[in-house]
Amino acid sequence: RRHFTVLAVESSADDTCAAIVTSSRQILSNVVIKQHDLHEGFGGIHPMIAIEAHQRNMPIAVKRALGEAKLDVSKDIDGIAFTRGPGIGGCLSVGSNAAKTLAAALNLPIVGVHHMQAHALTPLLTSWPNPPKFPFLTLLISGGHTLLLLATSLTSFRILATTPDESIGRTFDKVSRMLELKWSNLGPGAALEQFCAQTWESDLPKIPALPWPMRGKLGFSYASFHSYVERYISSRGGIQELDMATKLALARTFQTAAVAHLEEKLVLAYEWCVTQNIEVCDVVVSGGVASNQFLRGRLQECLIKLNPVNPISLCFPPPHLCTDNAVMIAWASMHRFLARDYDDYTVNLRSKWNI
Ligand code: KG4
Ligand code: ZN
């Protein structure tokens, strides 16, 4: 018979997603309904508002995914996948109920997917026919995650570093807002990158070095980066008192330190792999922050230094598949559907779920 076709839904955080993907790697549709404007001003995701938005948007997302793929759900879909966790319980339950009810009504098998595993497996879909080879390292850097993973097979992953406080993406956002940069449709993080990239002919003032949290340890911490910038600005009497050159020096010092923090952890992770006799040939960098060109250049240089003879290759999935989406959920479920390793309709959610 033809390839296997999966309809997947994802609703673990603030995006309502539905997608259709086949076992021959065709992405037939990819619908993402964002709700960040609803959470503006809460300093994070407001769970009740997110749940209500998922409830409103899930039927729309599923209908659109089927429409864009021009498929008839009763004939063309072979399995239903959903995000089982980790995530906000109430948000996950919207996707899970949608998936289970569809599957039960259509008599289709279901598979519940681990959200972080799905992120980690994305390059196997997007970098075809030259996907990263196991074992590979994944740096997942976005508004929701700051994570360094080692993927050793389709089903085995290890978190090497994560953060107890703020994500790198939110830190870029906060610093950009403190500097009062204009961001129009770029978003605050990308605006900060663009601001730093401007040419500046004269000398810039010296800014004292940023703190280096968790030096030498496999762990991220970005909270002190933004409090550093906040303190610096208030010590100078507020943002209105800073001239352009000082603002630029501050922004560049922050961006360089934020990226140096990632580089240090990547090197530590690589060295740890060497001590474990794990031979890593590929590093995948994904998430919204991975679109930063300065970061890409620095990581590339860092990997060449690590292994000048046989440089580790660096892979960036396309931005729209780095952020939360249901394509990655469909893809991560595929090997289980093909092995007929389905979940029961009674499968529970795992709001907290080790990878
Ligand atoms: O993965 P993503 O699109 O979505 C969520 O995590 O929800 O990541 C968004 C984050 C935001 O914090 C945004 O400011 C940041 O990625 N970002 C950037 C750049 N583009 C997006 N940060 C630094 N440099 C960029 N060019
Ligand atoms: Zn995610």
Automatic annotation (TrEMBL):
Ranges of residues in domain Gcp-like: 26-331
Annotated cofactor note: Binds 1 divalent metal cation per subunit.
Q: Name one GO cellular component term.
A: mitochondrion
- What are the protein's UniProt keywords? Acyltransferase, Metal-binding, Mitochondrion, Transferase, tRNA processing
GO MF terms held by the record: metal ion binding; tRNA N(6)-L-threonylcarbamoyladenine synthase activity
- What Gene Ontology terms for biological process does this UniProt record contain? mitochondrial tRNA threonylcarbamoyladenosine modification
Primary location group: mitochondrion
Superkingdom of this entry's organism? Eukaryota
Q: What class of enzyme is it?
A: transferase
This enzyme catalyses: L-threonylcarbamoyladenylate + adenosine(37) in tRNA = N(6)-L-threonylcarbamoyladenosine(37) in tRNA + AMP + H(+)
Question: What CDD domains does the entry give?
Answer: ASKHA_NBD_OSGEPL1_QRI7_euk
Its required cofactor(s), as named, are: a divalent metal cation
The catalytic activity of this protein is classed by the Enzyme Commission as 2.3.1.234
Q: Where in the cell is it found?
A: Mitochondrion
Classification via InterPro entries: ATPase_NBD, Gcp-like_dom, KAE1/TsaD, Peptidase_M22_CS, TsaD
Assembly behavior: Homodimer.
According to its UniProt entry, the function of this protein is described as: Required for the formation of a threonylcarbamoyl group on adenosine at position 37 (t(6)A37) in mitochondrial tRNAs that read codons beginning with adenine. Probably involved in the transfer of the threonylcarbamoyl moiety of threonylcarbamoyl-AMP (TC-AMP) to the N6 group of A37. Involved in mitochondrial genome maintenance.
- Record's family? Belongs to the KAE1 / TsaD family.
- Alphabetical list of PANTHER family matching this protein: TRNA N6-ADENOSINE THREONYLCARBAMOYLTRANSFERASE, TRNA N6-ADENOSINE THREONYLCARBAMOYLTRANSFERASE, MITOCHONDRIAL
Q: What is this protein called?
A: N(6)-L-threonylcarbamoyladenine synthase
What is the species listed in this Swiss-Prot or TrEMBL entry? Collybia nuda
Starting at the broadest rank, the lineage of the source organism is: Eukaryota, Fungi, Dikarya, Basidiomycota, Agaricomycotina
